[in-house]
Each structure stands twice: as C-alpha cells, then as structure tokens.
Design goal:
two-stranded antiparallel sheet; 29% strand; 44% helix; 133 residues; alpha+beta; 5 helices; Ribosomal Protein L22, Chain A; 5 strands
Length: 133
C-alpha cells in the first residue's frame, strides 16, 4: 500500500550558487557517506549529484507530508547508488519500503520518492526476487 508520493524539481545552477555562498551547505544536507560519494565526481557530475540528493530529500519529506524538520532531518536521509548505479534511499527509523528515482536534464534535476508499506506476502515476494538477481 502506498503511504506517500513526493516529487521535487531543482535547478542545478541554483544549488551551485548556494554552494558558493554557503560553505557549510554540503555538510548540512549530505551525510558523510554522500559527501564521500560526491567527492568522487567532478564538474557537472558533482553538481548533478549534490542537486539530486538535495531534491530527493525534499521529495522524501513531501512524501512523508511533513517537509524537512523534526520528522525528516537532512542527516537522517541517505541516498547512495547501488552497484548497478540505481539510487537507493535509506532513512533512519523508517520501516516502510522506500523507492527513489533521480533524473537530470539540462540545468534541472527531478526526483520522485514513494513510501510503501508492504504486506507480509509482498515482503516475501520482494525478498525472493532480490535473491534471484
């Protein structure tokens, strides 16, 4: 059952400007693991990564219905890539199943996050499918 869906769109140039104005912005919005992953990228790919994570965290907070604050803090949300390259979202204390999609086009990044509560049968089916991969 879907609990929430959130989406966000962000200008990559806007995030670049914020990074230039506020040196602590990166450590405010990204976890240590995300900062490490970002440091492995350069130029446009670095900016897309940071903007994508910012946007995905905003989308998560919208799916939750609370915005960023007490129930969804920047540092509670981590989005890293699976070995396949697909982004995966983890949230401290979140027991529901989370899905995230991040896409870039020109100067924009767009994200969507879905929060689902799976039935016992759905969890078993998912676990079985993941073993086959």
């Amino acid at each position: 059952m879907i609990i929430g869906i959130g989406n966000d769109m962000e200008s990559i140039a806007r995030i670049e400007a914020v990074l230039e104005r506020r040196p602590n912005f990166l450590s405010t919005i990204l976890t240590k693991e995300e900062i490490q992953a970002a440091s492995e990228r350069t130029g446009k790919h670095y900016l897309e990564f940071v903007a994508g994570r910012f946007s995905a965290k905003e989308a998560y907070s919208k799916a939750l219905g609370t915005g960023i604050g007490k129930k969804a803090a920047w540092q509670d949300i981590t989005i890293l890539n699976a070995p396949s390259g697909r982004p995966e979202i983890r949230v401290r204390g979140q027991k529901a199943t989370l899905s995230v999609a991040i896409t870039h086009s020109g100067d924009y990044v767009s994200t969507i996050v879905v929060i689902e509560k799976l039935s016992c049968f759905e969890r078993m089916k998912k676990k079985h499918w993941e073993k086959k991969r």
